[in-house]
Write a structure and sequence with these properties.
Length: 272
């Protein structure tokens, strides 16, 4: 790439927003060209570097999405579903590619991305970690190899400030397991257990969520049968793995036609 890719970050004051800003600055292939925050945020109008407690960057924080996206190549978005849909529409209008790491989106909200995806490239993943996306592929293959004698349980742990459960990553893993078995996840998912639930239903995929402290992200997929268990695991010890994955996805969008993509496309594993 002859010039650095111009990237806009939404939600720059959040943990992921700050990490993305730092990762973009450290890369020789990218540069930060815009910083977006919600209307009324105390950072609006300030130089981003100053707001973050560092040296000036020359990029001012704004709530004017159209202005921030002007001249950019990609916008990276780890915010909330309602905000993400607004970013998707703005990005489509300007032809800016959109990398989405937002979790907690409903099926209806995800479906609403189809319109913007007709006008620009959208890469969406419940987890941008390269390791997690390899785990997704392993989960699908193991689920396809084992029959319903093996109960599948997706166990995830996150920090005490996470607002959605199961995590987007857990749902990705559940979808992979269901795909491996040739079933629809909605038809076999056990997402809540409380009280007298009765015996586990054969062939169902369970989810268990743990929230506590500053856990960044831990995911296990357990295949449990009489006499043995197989456990596939991914542990994130540094939030930068998600930022690095998002930057890889952003760079991958260069020259890509409009459409909806995921990290398996980015990694060249789609369809495998």
């Amino acid at each position: 790439m002859s010039k650095r890719m111009g990237i806009v970050v939404t939600g720059v004051s959040g943990r992921m927003g700050r990490m993305l800003v730092e990762t973009i600055a450290a890369s020789e292939q990218t540069q930060l060209v815009g910083a977006i925050e919600r209307a009324g945020h105390e950072w609006i109008g300030r130089d981003l570097g100053d707001a973050m407690g560092g040296a000036a960057t020359g990029v001012s924080v704004t709530d004017d999405m159209a202005a921030a996206l002007e001249g950019a190549d990609v916008v990276i978005d780890f915010t909330a579903p309602v905000a993400t849909l607004k970013v998707a529409e703005a990005a489509a209008l300007t032809g800016v590619a959109h990398v989405i790491g937002t979790t907690g989106m409903t099926a209806e909200e995800i479906a609403r991305l189809s319109g913007p995806a007709e006008r620009t490239a959208i890469v969406r993943a419940g987890n941008m970690s390269l390791g997690v996306n390899l785990l997704v592929q392993l989960t699908k293959r193991v689920a396809a190899a084992l029959d319903d004698d093996y109960d599948i349980e997706v166990i995830e742990a996150h920090h005490n400030q996470k607002i959605d459960a199961p995590s987007g990553t857990a749902l990705m893993l559940g979808e992979a397991a269901a795909e491996g078995r040739g079933v629809a996840l909605d038809a076999v998912a056990d997402r809540v257990r409380d009280g007298i639930t009765g015996a586990r239903r054969r062939g169902h995929i369970g989810f268990s969520a743990i929230r506590g402290g500053d856990i960044i992200g831990e995911h296990d997929v357990m295949f449990a049968a009489a006499g043995e268990r197989i456990v596939l695991r991914h542990l994130a010890s540094d939030r930068s793995v998600f930022a690095r994955g998002a930057i890889k996805a952003a760079l991958w969008t260069a020259g890509k036609p409009p459409g909806q993509y995921d990290m398996l496309d980015v990694l060249g594993l789609s369809g495998q």
